[in-house]
Design goal:
Layout: H1 3-9, H2 12-42, H3 48-85, H4 89-124, H5 132-144, H6 146-161, H7 165-189, H8 193-217, H9 234-268, H10 271-307, H11 311-338, H12 340-345, H13 351-364, H14 371-383, H15 387-400, H16 402-413, H17 415-454
C-alpha cells in the first residue's frame, strides 16, 4: 500500500502512529537540544545567569522569526496534502515551488533587517545594558541564518506532507544530535560563549536545507522541486497565505506575549525574573514539543482525508490526538510537581535564579494537562481550511485572553500574578475551543449523513 492509499484506507490509529511518532521523536530530540543548549549557556562560568536572561530577551525576536518560518511551511505543506488528496500532483509541485520561493525571499529580508536594526529591536524586547551583549551575540548569528533556515524548514515539512514522515524526522533528529555535539565545541573548546551556541544551531539549519533540497531534486521523492516552479505566483501565494495566517498569528502572538511578559517581569522581578521565565518555558517545552509533533502528524492525516471527503477519519484523528496529548501533558505535570528542583537545576546553579524559577514553575505550569485541546483544536480547523476560525482560536490562549490577564493580575499579586496569568488563560481557552470542536463535530456528522444518502 503506497503512502497515498494508506492515508485514505489505513486505520486512523495506525496512521497516527506512523505519521506522529517520527515527528514526536524529532520534537523530543529538539526539546533535548534546547534543554542541553540552554544548560550549556547557563553553565558559562561567571556569566551563566545573565546569559540565560540575555537568551530570554531574544525569545520575542526568535518567535517572530519562527512565525514566518512555521507559518509558510504549514501553509505550503497543508496545501500539498490537500492537492495530493485530490489526486493533483502537478498542482502540489507548484505549491512546493512557491513555498520554497516565499520562504527564501522572507529569509533574505529578515537577515537584512536584522543586520541594521538588531540592537534597537532587542532593547524594545526588554534588553538591559547588562544582558544585551549576550542577546546580540546569539541573535546576530540566528538572524543571518534565516535565508537558509526558512526554506530548509519548509522543505522538511513538505517531505512529511508528501507521505515520508520517517525521513523528515530522521533529518530533524540527525540535525539535533549534530547540534548537541557542536554546541560544547564552539562554546567551551573554541571559547565562543553564547555566540558558539548560535553558530552550532546555524550549521545544523544549513544541513537540513541542503539535505531537503537534495531530496526534492535528486532524491527518491514523489514530488519534485522544479526550477520553473520556484517563483511567486499570486494564485499559489494566496492558497499558502490563507492557511499560513493561523500559524503565523499563533507564532507571532507568542513573540508578542514574550515581549509583554519580559516587560512585566522586568518591573516586578528584574533581569533574573526574565531568566526564570526562560527556564520555566524551557521545562514546559520538554512536554509540549511531543504535542507539537503529534499535531504535525495529525495535520497531514486530517488535511488529506478532509480533501477526500472522509470526514469521520479526520474527526477520529483529532480525537485520538487529543487523548494522547492529554496523557503526555498529565505525566509531565506530575513529574514537574514531584521534582521541581531537578528540572530547574538543569539550567542554573545560581540560588536566586533557582528560587525564582521553582516558585514560577509551581504556579505557571499548573494548567499543563489542559493545553492539548488548545494546541490541537486550532490545527484541526486549519487542516480543514477554516483559516479564520483557526486563527481566532489560536490567538485566544496567547493574546486575546492572556494579555489582559497579564497586564491586570500582576498589579494585584506582583510577580506571582505574572506566573498565574498563563494558567488562567489556558483554562478559559480550553473551554472555548472545546465548545467549538463539539459544534464542528455535529456539523461533520450531518455532512456524513448527506454523503451516505447521495451514495
Amino acid at each position: 500500500m503506497d503512502n497515498q492509499q494508506a492515508l485514505r484506507n489505513e486505520k486512523v490509529g495506525t496512521l497516527l502512529l506512523k505519521y506522529s511518532v517520527p515527528a514526536i521523536l524529532a520534537m523530543m530530540v529538539t526539546s533535548l537540544y534546547n534543554t542541553v543548549d540552554r544548560a550549556f549557556i547557563g553553565s558559562i562560568e561567571g556569566v551563566g545567569a545573565l546569559a540565560i536572561s540575555g537568551l530570554g530577551v531574544t525569545m520575542p525576536l526568535f518567535t517572530i522569526l519562527g512565525a514566518f518560518c512555521v507559518a509558510i511551511a504549514v501553509g505550503g505543506s497543508t496545501n500539498i496534502s490537500i492537492k495530493l488528496g485530490e489526486g493533483n500532483k502537478e498542482e502540489a509541485e507548484r505549491v512546493l515551488g512557491n513555498t520554497f520561493a516565499l520562504e527564501l525571499s522572507v529569509g533574505i529580508l529578515i537577515a537584512i533587517v536584522g543586520l541594521f536594526f538588531l540592537d534597537n529591536i532587542l532593547y524594545v524586547f526588554g534588553a538591559s545594558n547588562e544582558t544585551i551583549p549576550y542577546a546580540r551575540e546569539y541573535m546576530s548569528v540566528i538572524i543571518f541564518a534565516a535565508w537558509f533556515n526558512l526554506p530548509g524548514f519548509a522543505l522538511n515539512s513538505a517531505i512529511r506532507a508528501e507521505g515520508n514522515p520517517k525521513l523528515a524526522a530522521k533529518m530533524m533528529i540527525t540535525s539535533c544530535i549534530l547540534n548537541l555535539i557542536l554546541d560544547p565545541i564552539f562554546i567551551f573548546v573554541f571559547d565562543m560563549g553564547i555566540r558558539g551556541a548560535a553558530i552550532g544551531t546555524a550549521i545544523c539549519q544549513l544541513v537540513i536545507c541542503i539535505w531537503s533540497t537534495y531530496y526534492f531534486t535528486k532524491g527518491k521523492s514523489n514530488l519534485k522541486l522544479r526550477i520553473q516552479n520556484i517563483r511567486l505566483e499570486k494564485k499559489y501565494l494566496k492558497l499558502i497565505t490563507i492557511i499560513a495566517l493561523t500559524p503565523f498569528f499563533f507564532e507571532l502572538s507568542a513573540g508578542f506575549i514574550h515581549l509583554v511578559t519580559n516587560r512585566v517581569l522586568k518591573i516586578y522581578g528584574g533581569d533574573l525574573a526574565i531568566g526564570a521565565m526562560t527556564t520555566v518555558t524551557s521545562i514546559s517545552l520538554m512536554f509540549l514539543m511531543p504535542v507539537f509533533g503529534l499535531s504535525q502528524g495529525m495535520q497531514t492525516i486530517i488535511a488529506y482525508n478532509y480533501g477526500a471527503k472522509q470526514y469521520d477519519r479526520a474527526k477520529k484523528a483529532l480525537s485520538l490526538s487529543i487523548a494522547v496529548a492529554t496523557s503526555i501533558l498529565t505525566i509531565g505535570f506530575i513529574l514537574i510537581r514531584l521534582f521541581p528542583e531537578l528540572f530547574v537545576g538543569v539550567f542554573t546553579k545560581n540560588n536566586e535564579l533557582m528560587n525564582l524559577a521553582i516558585n514560577g514553575i509551581s504556579i505557571n505550569l499548573i494548567s499543563l494537562p489542559t493545553i492539548g485541546i488548545s494546541i490541537l483544536g486550532p490545527v484541526y480547523f486549519q487542516s480543514i481550511g477554516s483559516a479564520k476560525k483557526s486563527m481566532v482560536l489560536s490567538l485566544l490562549r496567547q493574546v486575546i485572553i492572556l494579555i489582559p490577564v497579564i497586564l491586570i493580575v500582576p498589579k494585584i499579586l506582583g510577580l506571582n500574578g505574572v506566573w498565574m496569568s498563563q494558567p488562567i488563560s489556558d483554562i478559559v481557552t480550553m473551554m472555548i475551543i472545546g465548545a467549538f470542536l463539539i459544534k464542528e463535530f455535529k456539523k461533520v456528522s450531518k455532512n456524513e449523513e448527506i454523503i451516505e444518502k447521495i451514495s
